[in-house]
Every structure is written in C-alpha cells, then in structure tokens.
Write a structure and sequence with these properties.
By secondary structure, this protein is an alpha/beta fold. It contains 5 helices and 5 strands. Helix 4 packs parallel to helix 5. It is globular.
C-alpha cells in the first residue's frame, strides 16, 4: 500500500485569540511546501438559535453579532498572510467547536487539521483541552497540535543531550 503524503488542504482552527494564531506560521510553511490551500475556521461562541425555545430572538441577535465579529477577525488574519499564502479561504460555522471542526474537515475534504492547544500546569498538564481531545477522538485525519503554554509563546523543548556509551573490558 502506497500512501500519498501530500497535504493539499489544511483546516486551521482559530478561536479569536492570539494564542490560536501561533499555528499560522506552521500552516503557511506546509501550504507553501505542498502548494496547498489553507481553510481558516472560526466557530462562534454562541449556540444556534434552534437550540432555544422562547429566547430565540435574543440568541439570533447574539449569534449574528458573533458571526460578524468572527468574519472580521478572519479577514484580518487573511490580510496578514495573503502575500505569503495566496490560497487561503475562510469559514464561520457551527456552535460546538469540536463537532464543527470535524464536520468541516469531512465536508471540505481536508488532509490535515491544525490547531493550537493550551497546555496547563500541574495535574491538568496531563490532559489536552476538551475541544482538542474530542477532535482527535472523532477524526481519522492527522491533527497537528501546537502546544501553547501559559505565557504567550510555545515553549521550546530542551535540547537532546547526546550520550556516548563505551564498553570497557575489565580483563
């Protein structure tokens, strides 16, 4: 069986935070290497109006505002990367991030999902974010995770120390 490792369409999830944007240089590098397209996805942080009863008008208003802000945010990202990555599209959809990410990855035929994930300290550091965990569980696609530590930038890994082992003959 021969696998084609080409990555022609990347799905990059952005939640509106600067930390989520830290994945963009990696996405741009992969897009450039494989001459692929980047699809930027933002999922509004407001439920779909159909999930409510009496307060549908209020939810529709909040949802419309959140969608408008998400489109504006993605437009600023596109403007910043357009010169280095001309094949970029945007999408605002869904209300449950993990489900929306997986659904869009399927409907758009992406080859890889890319996202930043916050790394927590202490016992919490053993767990990735709940959205990240659900995406990884629900997809068969490769998922590129950029760990973002409390602070602002990804922390470099310590250098690997090379160790030489020599057998000594005691005879």
């Amino acid at each position: 069986m021969c696998l084609d490792p080409a990555i022609k369409r990347l799905l990059v999830t952005l939640d509106g935070s600067e930390k989520s944007e830290l994945v963009m240089p990696y996405a741009m590098a992969l897009s450039d290497t494989f001459q692929g397209e980047i699809l930027l996805l933002s999922v509004p942080d407001v439920p779909e109006p159909t999930e409510f009863g009496a307060s549908v008008d209020w939810v529709e208003s909040k949802r419309a505002g959140a969608e408008t802000e998400a489109w504006k945010y993605l437009d600023t990202i596109v403007a910043a990367v357009r010169e280095g990555c001309p094949a970029v599209r945007t999408m605002v959809t869904g209300s449950r991030p993990a489900s929306a990410i997986v659904d869009v990855s399927r409907s758009e035929g992406v080859d890889m999902i890319m996202m930043a994930t916050r790394v927590r300290g202490g016992v919490e550091r053993l767990w990735v974010g709940s959205v990240t965990e659900r995406v990884v569980q629900q997809t068969m696609l490769p998922v590129f995770l950029l760990p973002v530590h409390d602070g602002s930038t990804p922390q470099p890994q310590p250098p690997v120390q090379e160790t030489s082992v020599a057998a000594l003959d005691s005879d």
